[in-house]
């Protein structure tokens, strides 16, 4: 044990009015969700996409689902944001007076993608003649313009939420640093990439926590292909969870269930045999994901589902087990009739 006065200076609580978490050395977080929604609406609504042939405009942003935050750990800034955006547009060809309307959606605005990698899907109400031409204008010319707006959002997010997250020490109190200097020195963009070959060794992101492994088995009165479909068909998932879902069934595809209470993504899919996901509950420490492996085994005309979940926070262990039993096993059996007994 260190003697009094000889400890690591990073852990010494200075006499300062702003708090005891000196320099925000421990994990701190600023919620940027509401600010982000307003900023994205501001950047997109009214955006004009114009070519020599026609003119389109984004008329409204109907929904923005997701969250954003700025986090500090050991004087490093980490930004997390994940958004699904839906909206409407209208357009008119310059040699015509007929107006066409359509919709757009952005499924992957997140820190995992560079602005020019963000997808923009476009549709038009009447896919014929000028409608198709305007759709192409939105797709080919509008997509880069929208990606440019997303780059502006990311830049503004970093500038707005880098302020006061990393605090000066007592000796630095009179030093002035611009936002740009803080960003250049401290910003660290985290890429939430899970390598399934050693994901079990990476049970936390940004903060070290105690974890446990959940191991469960449950029998369902159905064939393995039927049960596999329950976990990979978006409509069936929405049926037993009782709400809308973001469910992109492909390697790297995103998962968001129960109004964002469960989030994650697909790591591996072996049809009718195995599913591997990164998976977390909203109540878990921020940005911490576990890895869930589901294996489907045939057993006497039924399916034995084996679940192994590594990286579960110790404080959430019992709650996670209960969640599988109540929100998955019971609901699946009730919804699809895959079991005569509900435990």
Describe the protein's architecture and organization.
The chain is built from six helices and 13 strands. The chain has 343 residues and is of the alpha+beta class. The strands form two sheets. It has a seven-stranded antiparallel β-sheet. Helix 1 packs antiparallel against helix 2 (130-161). Mean pLDDT is 80; it is low at 1-27 and 166-207.
Please specify the SSE layout and strand pairing.
Layout: E1 28-31, H1 33-44, E2 48-50, E3 54-73, E4 76-93, E5 99-110, E6 121-124, H2 130-161, H3 179-186, E7 211-220, H4 224-232, H5 234-241, E8 246-247, E9 254-257, E10 262-270, E11 274-281, E12 290-299, E13 302-313, H6 317-336
Antiparallel strand pairs: 1-3, 2-3, 3-4, 4-5, 5-6, 7-13, 8-9, 9-10, 10-11, 11-12, 12-13
Helix pairs in contact: 1-2
The number of E-state strands comes to: 13
Cα distance, first to last residue? Answer: 51 Å
Approximately how much helix is present in the residues? 25-40%
Largest sheet: 7 strands, antiparallel
Structural Rg: 24 Å
Give the helix/strand class.
Answer: alpha+beta
How would you write the strand order of the largest sheet? 7-13-12-11-10-9-8
Mean pLDDT equals: 80
Low-confidence stretches: 1-27, 166-207
Looking at the structure, what is the overall shape? globular
